[in-house]
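Sample intake — HAD-IA family hydrolase
Collected from: Nocardia terpenica
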Amino acid sequence: MIAGMTDETWVLFDYGGVISRDQPDADRAALERAAGVDPEAFWAAYWNHRRPFDDGSYTTADYWRAIAADLETRWDHARIELLADLDVRSWLHLDAGTTEIIRALAARDRPMALLSNAPRNIAAALADLPELTPLRQLYFSCDLRLAKPDPDIYHRVLDGLDAPAERVVFIDDRPENLTAAAAVGIRSIHFTTSAELATDLARELDDSPAA
């Protein structure tokens, strides 16, 4: 499926919107029911507080209490646990095409890693996914205490991979994350579909400098 991969260029995957699909409508509806508030206001607060949750500044309880405060409501411990569990599960729906690409790359011994904006509870769930086992290193924003598109997060990952920027191909669905990666010299692919990704990867890796 993906030919010509003989160099040691790393493939660095984003998770949400690349390896996983976006939160399905049914999961979003379950979160809305559990929250018991206006859905539009819920999602505004959900995303408003996501960055400090992703970069480890908030604990899980901190995050949901901050949302509740925005919504002028209170959730007890059991409700927060339910919301947190539903949230984690909503991010575990994988894109079959992307996971097939990961398997194909692994079969050719392509070095791969993950860079995801993820809070600690989601990072823990992702680390247990068998589909991510072929990825040699997993970088989560909560561990790095940085979140994309902060330029420093890309430098930290390059240091961890011990690879120059031109030997890394980063795949993300968000243009702002790709722009920040490109600014430090990382080669980037804008994810739209797994079929397009297979084509883009073959081109990028075929054009890689010899290892």
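Post-analysis note: The CA atoms of residues 17 and 208 lie 25 Å apart.
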